Structure formats: structure tokens, C-alpha cells
Fold this sequence. Notes:
Elements: H1 22-35, E1 39-42, E2 53-59, E3 64-73, H2 81-93, E4 98-103, H3 109-117, E5 121-123, H4 125-134, H5 153-167, E6 172-173, H6 174-181, H7 192-204, E7 208-211, E8 214-217, H8 221-236, E9 242-243, H9 244-255, H10 259-265, H11 268-277, E10 282-285, E11 288-290, H12 292-298, H13 305-315, H14 327-334, E12 341-345, E13 357-362, E14 368-378, H15 383-386, H16 389-394, E15 399-410, E16 413-424, H17 430-456, H18 459-462, E17 464-468, E18 471-481, H19 486-510
Parallel strand pairs: 3-4, 4-5
Antiparallel strand pairs: 1-2, 2-3, 6-8, 7-8, 9-11, 10-11, 12-13, 13-14, 14-18, 15-16, 17-18
Helix pairs in contact: 2-3, 5-7, 8-9, 8-11, 17-19
Amino acid sequence: MVNLFGIAQKDDILVDWAKVDPHELEWIVNSLYDRMGFKSILTSLSKDGGVDVVANYFSEETETYVKYIIQVKRWKDPVGVRIVRELLGVKEDQKADKALMVSISGYARTSMEFATRHNIRLVDKDALEEMLQKVQLLRVDGSLVSPSDPNLASNRKKSIHKLLSESKPKGLLRDEIIDGISSPRFRITVRKEILNQDIDDLSRGGEIIEDDGKYYPTLSEDVLSIVSKNLSSDIGNIRHVFTEKDIYNLLEEKYKLPSPIAVRLVPIKEIVERLIQTGKINQIVEGVFISPSTLAKMKEFDWTRESLRQNILELTNLKKDALEKTVEEVRTMKGLPLGGETKFFNRNLFEKMPFMTIGLHFCKDHEAGYIIGRLFIPLFMNPLEALTERELQNAKIRKMEITTRREHKLDGKSNRIPHGAHVISTGISIETIRMFEEKAKQIYQYGSRLIDLLTEFHMDKELQLGCAGSELAIFAMCDFGREEKFGNCLNRLLDKAEILQKFLTKMYEKCPPPLG
């Protein structure tokens, strides 16, 4: 006798099916079709219209899914024609493409005749056992694979989740996932193409996140809510100048949350905007933030020349003996490249020095270079952006940020650059417009006083000035020959830093930046 799958049947009794619980038999059939490449769902516990398993198979020929409904019977007597006739009715009611029955006790002759006429597939005990053997759910000794078998689809996917959770925050490549869960630790032995399909299923279902070829575990809504709530407090407690990148680093270090997940799931921009509006943090310039208490401490500007020297050495990760070395010896010691600038970002702006960044540049074509300190301070400001939270509440308006995009051509390539704009989300009165006018006047007065101060200090001659968006860029740049002592070069930068120190002291006295 040959079954419907073309497998020769035999008379040997492999499994004592009388000892198998009916629900366990349904689980076995569900696992069988899962192993055969179907998307199978066990439905009997939900009493889904007499159907025990729904299995969908993707047909490459029609490029559509074919729906099978499966009924499982563990009876003592053969299944009669009435039961098979009922299955046909369920197939039509559920608009299934195929109907199939599995019976341990076989079928009556009339059942098999009816099934043949109506294209219903009948699987008996022998056919079931051979199918189970073929997909390794039935061992040669007659023992059945248990629900805890690591090769089951549900257990394979649990193993992938476990492996990705352990990899946080770095994530794993697809081959690293497959190699990891194929290791002896997980005892998974299915083919590589099955594991690839598992990864695709999890990614399409949003259970794992793919970014630039790496995969990461996603977050539950509860965990995401807790992280977002705690993050507001964490950001408010940062005691140095920080950028959005520092927030992503915080998420990675404290919550083991990699940047690709944070970018997609954590509303960082909304959290930062809310903190600015409530006065928990200030925006120094676009994308650079600080807490009010740290900002107040910054305004002291009480560095000495020696402390500035030491702080710049610390920032560039150099020891005091570097002052006696040539600039080229310092470059070699640090392994810094030729033809490009290496930047060192100052996370403690104004606490230790007047520079946001220190840069070292070494020319590629000749024995020269420069050291540069940079500072950015507000020069212009959108009046709406400058409104405080209290002013907004008094005017009974709310501002929100929208993002527009414009396209630039850079080296022949198209680059999309985001630009934020503040808009009013409700109607405004004449009084509110007058408030904008007053705020614009204040900003104009600040800009005018700042320009007067720049003139008073001859800043365009002592240092270099530029504009970066709505910010004033102040550069303290000192050229050097690579055979010059690094200490001499640093002394020239300190001369410029002292000028900037005096300028900042006067600026905060006469025209402090309008930071909301």
C-alpha cells in the first residue's frame, strides 16, 4: 500500500498510539506540517469550528498561500463517512483550499470513497509514522519527539531571541545567528535554509530588528515605556555638555540598547524637546544641550593659564612630557593621520576651557599643520524657539517641531539633510503676535550688543570668526611646523584662549545668550 505522499507503507507497529494523549497528537501533527515548510497553527484548544490545525503553504507556482484545514482523530474505531462529510462542510465554510484528516484508527471504506470523490486527503497511522520519520519527529526506536525539542519552530525562534538578547548591544550578523544556534549549546540540527526562513519570519513580524545587515532584539511596550520614562530623568541629570549621540551612548551603556533600536523605538527628539520646554535642559546651539545648573557653573570662567594647559592635555589624552616633544613626535605617538583633522570633543564646556572642540591637523604634502580650538554661541534665533514654557502657556499656544528635507549634491552624490522648523499648532491672537515682536526685539538687541562686543575686543583680528547656521563660530587657530615643540604651539593657543576667556566674561555680563 502507498500513501498519498508516495511513501510505501508497512505493517510494523512503531508507536503505541493508545498511550498518546489526543491533544499531544494534535501537537505532533501541527509540528509535522511545520517541519514540512507549512505555516501551521494549532487551533483545537480554541474550538475553531472542529479544525485542529490550520496550515498554510506558499505556492511558488501561483505565488499565493494555499490554506489546509486538518482534523486529527485518535479513536478506537475507523472514522465513518459522516465525519469526513462534516470536514468537507467545514472546508467550504472556512474557504480553505484543501481539507485533510489524520486518523490513527483508519477509515471506513465509504469514508475513503467519499474522500476520493471530493478531493479530501486521508492520512492513516502508517502514513503518519513514515511522514514523522522523514522529518525526524519519530525516532527509529518508536519514540516521539517531545514539545521541548529544540528543533521545533517555536523553540528555534526562542533560541534566536535568546542569542540576540545576549549579544546586546552589538547585534549579530545573519551568519553569526545561524552559527550560534547551530552550536552544541542549542542542540538545533535543522538545515541552514530553515534557519534563514526563521530569521526572515521574525524580522517581517517585527520581533527582531534588522539594520545594516545586523539583527537586534526588539523591546516590549512595557520595557519601552519604562526606558522612555527613565531616560527623561537620566538626560536631566547629565552634568556636562551633551549631544544626541551622547544620549544614544547612555542608552547603550545603561540599558544595553543599541543605537539602531533606539533610533526606531525611543522618541528621543520628543523627550529632549519636552525637557527644553520645561526648563530641565538648555540648548546651547542646535544639537548641543546642557542642564541649567551646569550652565550657571560654566559662567564663572575662572580658569588659570596652567589649568587651561592641563585641561587641553587631558582632553587630547597627552601627558605633560608631550610639551617637550616635537609636534611630529606627538603625532607618531598618538598614531594620528596625515591629511586630516582629528577632533577632541569637550564634554565639559566652559568648566575647564572655552572650547567645544580641539582639533589637530597634519598636512599630507608638507611638514606643517595646525591646532585649533572652536566655540559656537547663538547669534540669531527664531523668536518662537526663544519663547519660554511659561510664555507659551500664558499665550495659550503650543509649538511643535516639523522636519522638512532638502536635497544637496555632494561629490556627485545625493544627500538628504534634515532641517527642523518650529510651527504653531493652534490659532493665535494679536497679543501673541505682539509677544513675538517683543521677543524678536530682545534677540535683535542681543545680536547688536554681541557685535559691538566683538568689535571692542577686535575678535576678527585676534581670532577667526565665521557663521555656522544661526551660530557665531569663533576659531582659535595656530599653525605649526612639525619639528616645532608641541609646548610652544600650545602656548600660542593659550594666548588666544585667554582673549576668549575675557570676551566670554564680558559677554555674559552685557549680553548673555537667549537660551530660553
